[in-house]
Here is the input.
Amino acid sequence: MANIRDVKRGDPQATAQAVLELVDAPEPPLRLILGSETLPISRAAYAERLATWEAWETVSNAAQGETATPAWSTPPSP
Here is the structure.
């Protein structure tokens, strides 16, 4: 992950404009990430999380009474 000192700072005027656009939107999102670097970082983080959740899906499903094969018994497919 990037060091905070390496993060490109945004333009305060552009940020204000983006916030105003959000406020004026008929159906604004619950959350909005700002800046050109944030979305790619978030995509990578969530891709890792999703891969982990998918690898453990059988164990997760077992919590509802489904038969589970432990996730550690078979390596996740690429």
Observations:
- The chain has one domain: 10-72.
- Residues 10-72 form one domain.
- Helices lie at 12-24, 38-55, 57-62.
